[in-house]
Amino acid sequence: MALKVENLSKHFGDVNVLRDISFEMAAGQSLSVMGPSGSGKSTLLHVLGTLDRPSEGSLEIEGQDPFALSEIELARFRNQGIGFVFQEHHLLPQYSVLENVLIPTLAFRNGDARDRAREIIDRVGLSHRIDHRPAELSGGERQRTAVARALINSPALLLCDEPTGSLDGARAEEIADLLFELHERENNILICATHSTALAHRFERRFDLQGGTCVEV
Length: 217
Hints:
Layout: E1 3-12, E2 15-25, E3 30-34, H1 41-48, E4 56-61, H2 71-81, E5 82-86, H3 97-102, H4 113-123, H5 139-151, E6 157-161, H6 169-186, E7 189-193, H7 197-200, E8 205-210, E9 213-216
Parallel strand pairs: 3-7, 3-8, 5-6, 6-7
Antiparallel strand pairs: 1-2, 1-4, 8-9
Helix pairs in contact: 4-5, 5-6
């Protein structure tokens, strides 16, 4: 399994946000996570993305326990193996589309990063906007740039936290189509937290997160 989660729990003081969550996923699979606000969807993504450590349980990504690594090794692992797309694009306003997409490659130099960036920008349909800054882009174009940035290092795991939540219906569907098209091409694991029932039902597998526990539906 490319992703293996066993008895994962996360506590904040006396609050049990996640409880004994276990599942496995292979490369190329997709999963949506639904649940009410405050149910722990973002916390689950943060732990899966190694941005936060579990209180109990274990996580393996492509056979590696990321939390057994040193902080420097973990930063490299996260940079190379995990991509993130959030509800807000978090683009740097002073940089162009190309420069924003290249940011994840700066910490660990990649010789062909510029070619890869141009390729992925073309895939998301923004070649004609490659030198434009975020203020010159539409909301959908900014989110497309964020998707390209998340995929620049060809991560095995792509995590999306409400990626269409700030977009209107047409733009939301456009971004969803893009995510699935690139997911199929890249053969990554795609996990998405969403409030959108329509989006959730497009995924191969679906979890409902209630009371800190995931139930597959």
